Amino acid sequence: MAAHLAKACNCIALSIDYRLAPEHRFPAAIDDCVNAYKFLLDAGYKSDHIVTAGDSAGGHLATSVPLCARDKHLPMPACAVAISPWYDLTHKGPTMKSNADVNMLGTADTLRGMAQNFIEGTGAKLDDPLVSPLFADLKGLPPHWLSVAGYDMLKSGGDDMAAKMKREGIEVVYEVHEGMQHVFELMAGRAPEADRSIRMIGEWVREKIGS
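^ thats the sequence. predicted structure below, dont judge the formating
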């Protein structure tokens, strides 16, 4: 999917092999991705030519990296792309229940267990801003493209984040793909729905970074 996305955006992709829980819990993954962003800046890439992008937990990182960059007084990336982002690890949104019977990738118990696994022993709470970006101060974030699937139990997090971004004056494009599953864009090259989403993202990103 990274290759399909890079081709659509007419750019190169740096795919981060960030550390994973349970061996490396919060904030290891975020630290690794922020360091990768610093690496690009130190290598001479201009921030307005850099896009953060990811799916699911990576969608979380696509937004949390700019949050950290802002707080560390680093230049902002040009934009961010979050695909089926996992923005709310408290899982209090209504689609956790309303989509339970149509969501094919995981269960509510699985998601809650993964969330606890992410923070266990760290002293962090599930509603901390960098654990659940939905609860962060979004001031100063770059434009965002949010893509969510209609059958995803995590859809509420995308709904709420898009609404919050609009309230806080963040430019956001919010695409809801009805009848689709979590990160359906993984089917790029095999399903027209995935290809269409990737194509739309690419067109938007090329406008933002001039590629």
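The chain is about 40% helix and 10% strand.
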